[in-house]
Amino acid sequence: MTWHAPTADAPLDAVVVVPGSKSLTNRYLVLAALAAGPSMLRGALASRDTELMAAGLTALGAQEMTWTPQGLRAGPLLAADGEARVDCGLAGTVMRFLPPVAALTGRTTHFDGDPEARVRPMGPVLAALRTLGARVDDGGRAALPFTVRGPLHGGAVDVDASTSSQFVSGLLLSAAALPDGLTVRHTGTTLPSLPHIAMTVEVLHEAGVRVDDSRPDIWQVHPGPVAGRDLRVEPDLSNAAPFLAAALVAGGTVRVSGWPGRTTQPGAMLPELLEAMGGRAERVGDALAVTGTGQVHGVDVDLRTASELAPTVAALAALADSPTRLRGIGHIRGHETDRLTALATELTRVGAQVEQTSDGLVVTPRTLHGAVWETYRDHRMATAGALVGLRVPGVEVVDVTTTRKTLPGFVDLWTRMLGLEA
Ligand SMILES: O=C(O)C1=C[C@@H](OP(=O)(O)O)[C@@H](O)[C@H](O)C1
Ligand SMILES: C=C(OP(=O)(O)O)C(=O)O
């Protein structure tokens, strides 16, 4: 089934309310399960990735995971017997954050996920768990499916997180529950997505956990209780990206409400990035408003701290008036799909000239034409196709419902932004 991406036939004038952040919701859920008392996550994201996280924590013994109109009520883990099973779907946060939690419970836990998840990198997490005393059976594949059994002792562990910052975040999130705490040292030459590690440190601090991150590439989590919390989840700024980018393509203004004044989300980079590509970004009340003219400029940008934005920026680049170079994102070959190949293939199919480099893409705009846009079960490939379709008639996005990974209401929000009936 394909979705006919609508073109924008007039400048935009829209307010978009984007649901809660996937990265924050799933961190808060893990900490809620490790806390001593109940938590309430107001504005939590309800999507496939967060539902899988809640279900995984329930399988591991979480007392409560209840969606209410106000948000998600989450209760701590209780001791439970027997073997547990966790379905990771295609969620990096579930497959990297839950194995340490499973090891803490001492139960044998079987992890698996979608076929596409079985090629996502897991080796450094599994090696770290073994170093810390857990038994891991992965059949030598260093990938899903695998079985984990605790106990887990703390201390210190080295991890090469050059293919995903989530290896570090996953270990840190569980570390306060270890009797000795845990010091994690990154040993690789590059480290992507530093803001996501800062996000992990920040949510730990907010839950009363002491973390020392004063040395580069080393994080020390002290043992201690995790506080149950009543909190509000920020909107997902990475999901806001294609909507704000739409203003550059179609002209007019798109406002995303509830934009945080300060945030660890990589979407913090969007105002500067969209300005470099030809927009104007300003705060209006609690919103970020982006205004465009319909003319998009190419950029040369290192996206290693914000690689989730790469599909949006690559789609914009194909509609620009000059070439774009994206750097620092070799690791996104291990995201939901090999995103460098997927973006190069689909942008080439609609007529752009795209070269893959070792750590990114060079996109040279050409006259584009409609085509079937494959999405490879990748939510951000679907939203990138929608963005190209704003300008290019006849873009047919395959399996647009893949957006339910983090944004189940995508098609509704997109058509409403265009002033069309949802
Ligand atoms: O910790 C997180 O919530 C995330 C970290 C990043 O992963 P990588 O470091 O693998 O890019 C990001 O791309 C992903 O979407 C979410
Ligand atoms: C890379 C992403 O997801 P995940 O959390 O599955 O790694 C993403 O959402 O762009």
How does this model look, in words?
This protein is α/β, with parallel strands linked by helices. The chain folds into two domains: 201 residues, Alpha-beta prism (UDP-n-acetylglucosamine1-carboxyvinyl-transferase, Chain), CATH 3.65.10; 211 residues, Alpha-beta prism (UDP-n-acetylglucosamine1-carboxyvinyl-transferase, Chain), CATH 3.65.10.10. Helix content is 32%, strand content 22%. The strands form six sheets. The protein has a four-stranded mixed sheet. The protein has a four-stranded mixed sheet with strand order 4-5-3-14. Strands 6-7-9-8 form a four-stranded mixed sheet. A hairpin with a 2-residue loop joins β16 and β17. The chain is globular. The structure holds shikimate-3-phosphate and phosphoenolpyruvate (PEP). The site of shikimate-3-phosphate has 13 residues, from α3 and α5.
Topology:
Layout: E1 2-4, E2 12-16, H1 22-34, E3 39-42, H2 48-59, E4 65-68, E5 71-74, E6 84-87, H3 92-105, E7 109-112, H4 123-131, E8 135-137, E9 146-149, E10 155-159, H5 166-175, E11 182-186, H6 194-206, E12 211-212, E13 218-221, E14 230-232, H7 237-250, E15 252-256, H8 270-276, E16 280-284, E17 287-292, E18 300-302, H9 310-318, E19 324-327, H10 339-349, E20 353-357, E21 360-364, E22 371-373, H11 379-391, E23 395-398, H12 410-417
Bound molecules: shikimate-3-phosphate (S3P) and phosphoenolpyruvate.
* Biggest β-sheet: strands ordered side by side in the sheet: 2-15-17-16
What would you call the shape? globular
Strand content: 15-25%
Helix content: 25-40%
InterPro entries: Enolpyruvate_Tfrase_dom, Enolpyruvate_Tfrase_sf, EPSP_synthase, EPSP_synthase_CS, RNA3'P_cycl/enolpyr_Trfase_a/b
Protein name: 3-phosphoshikimate 1-carboxyvinyltransferase
Main location: cytoplasm
Subcellular location: Cytoplasm
